[in-house]
Specification:
Elements (H helix, E strand, L loop, with lengths): L14 H12 L2 H13 L3 H29 L3 H8 L6 H34 L9 H10 L4 H18 L2 H28 L4 H9 L10 H13 L6 H6 L9 H28 L10 H12 L3 H34 L4 H21 L14 H28 L2 H8 L4 H27 L4
Helix pairs in contact: 1-8, 1-12, 1-14, 2-10, 2-12, 3-4, 3-9, 3-10, 3-12, 3-16, 3-18, 4-5, 5-7, 5-14, 5-15, 5-16, 6-13, 7-8, 7-14, 7-15, 8-12, 8-14, 9-12, 10-16, 13-14, 14-15, 15-16, 16-18
The structure holds phenylalanine (PHE).
């Protein structure tokens, strides 16, 4: 081990660099691919309403909770808990996070690999006209091939590895300084374009006119909670790890609100963009995970300048995926780097090797292992649901209990860096009472099938 703290001198150069990286972590496939199909399957506007309420009441306060643990602990997921709560079992929350991150990245690279492949197909012109049998069949036959998708997911992970290997300020911060502004511009372009389409008003109604009777549908709550955690990168100590590289003077509260706001704006814009297109071309909103990969290409084909729009869209999706994958890889790398005493480079290779190997299962689940399923979910869906709906909220719940009950009130307030007494009270009450109760209820109910 070359340094006792585990992080050495590597830190974010600026607070803004941290914010961009954390926004990059939050904004990802979750906002575009996952948000659109989960919202599509769960009633659009009503889902969005519950989702927004969870972001505000649970997401933002917990983002502050998680980052405050990292900033005070100044170490990786496990080390930070060990430092703040020596001789206790709290570090297991960090360990669960490390495993959760590895699991999420193992399927994240599969979908990211599809995105990279689609980008390639549009750049070479292969998808400019609908392939024989349609885009649905093209997607099916491609993902059921045991080798080709593995190549693309290896390529995606390989690029992520090269960035993470270079550390925080020289690798992750630099990459996000390029990705994030580009992402914002492309996204605004796509949303404006979406609003010019014929189905815009119907798409907007689907996304913004709630049908309150659907609030009686219990599964909306578990899905919205899982989506809020997934989208904010919350509950598995990825944000904790990022905030451990902050300088002392860089304050947390404003940054966490900024991160959540940006993430939510991205999800809403992605929703506008996708659902206006979906309604313009009259396809089913509940098409599930393939929505983005099967439905959108047929839509692009019928659009004026659709090929160009498709390229812009898949550049956007791939970049967003990269900026999130960086944080998912940094989480176990920081831990392995410290505990096994490996160099950062070696730790990055070890973690990537494990993640790639696990990812093979999710990929083959669409082909030769498609027989492995539970309740109609293939391997990728199972890992996705298990992590988003269980591991992430459980991690968040435990962090709320840690800061709300284990840590003394004064210390918790100090860690949060909130200045106004009013905000301190609101935040502390939410973290100590409201969030644990609401979350324990939803988790319990969805685990035992009441929902
Ligand atoms: N928030 C990322 C997304 O929306 C996914 C993610 C989850 C990243 C958990 C890090 C930790 O795509």
């Amino acid at each position: 081990m070359n340094d006792a703290s585990g992080i050495g001198n590597d830190q974010w150069k600026t607070r803004f660099g941290f914010m961009l990286a954390a926004m990059g972590s939050a904004v990802g496939l979750g906002n575009i691919w996952r948000f659109s199909y989960v919202a599509g399957e769960n009633g659009g506007a009503t889902f969005l309403f519950v989702y927004l309420a969870f972001i505000l009441l649970i997401g933002i306060p917990l983002l502050l909770t998680e980052t405050s643990i990292g900033k005070a602990g100044k170490m990786d997921a496990v080390g930070s808990f060990k430092k703040l709560a020596p001789n206790t079992k709290w570090h297991l929350v960090g360990l669960m996070g490390v495993f959760g991150g590895i699991l999420i990245l193992s399927f994240y690279i599969v979908v990211s690999g599809w995105s990279l492949f689609y980008l390639y197909q549009y750049i070479t012109g292969a998808f400019w006209t609908e392939p024989d049998g349609g885009f649905g069949q093209a997607f099916e036959s491609w993902i059921s091939n045991p080798f080709a998708p593995l190549f693309w997911q290896a390529l995606f992970l390989g690029i992520t590895l090269l960035i993470v290997m270079n550390g925080i300020s020289k690798g992750i911060e630099r990459a996000n300084n390029i990705f994030m502004p580009a992402l914002a511009i492309l996204m605004i372009f796509m949303a404006i374009y979406g609003l010019t389409l014929d189905g815009a008003s119907e798409g907007l109604a689907f996304l913004f006119t709630p049908d309150w009777s659907q609030l009686g549908n219990p599964s909306i709550y578990a899905m919205a909670l899982g989506q809020a955690f997934f989208s904010l990168s919350l509950g598995i100590c990825g944000m904790l790890t990022y905030s451990s590289y902050l300088k002392e003077k860089d304050r947390l509260p404003g940054a966490t609100v900024g991160i959540a706001l940006m993430d939510t704006v991205f999800a809403v814009i992605a929703g506008i963009m996708i659902f206006t297109a979906v309604f313009s071309f009259e396809v089913d909103t509940a098409s599930g995970p393939p929505l983005v990969f099967i439905i959108l290409p047929s839509i692009f084909e019928g659009m004026p300048a659709g090929n160009l729009i498709a390229i812009v869209f898949f550049v956007l999706l791939t970049m967003a995926a990269f900026s999130s994958a960086l944080s998912l890889l940094e989480l176990p790398v920081a831990y392995v780097h410290r505990t096994l005493g490996l160099s950062r480079k070696a730790a990055t290779f070890v973690c990537s090797g494990i993640i790639f190997t696990l990812g093979i299962a999710s990929s083959l689940g669409f082909g030769i292992w498609s027989g492995v399923e539970y309740n109609g979910n293939n391997i990728l869906d199972m890992i996705d649901n298990f992590t988003a709906n269980l591991i992430l909220p459980l991690g968040g719940l435990l962090m709320a209990i840690f800061v709300g009950w284990y840590v003394k009130r004064d210390q918790a307030i100090q860690m949060s860096e909130l200045q106004s007494a009013g905000l301190q009270n609101i935040w502390y009450t939410l973290v100590r009472y409201v969030i644990p109760v609401v979350m324990a209820f939803i988790l319990f109910a969805s685990l035992f099938g009441f929902m």
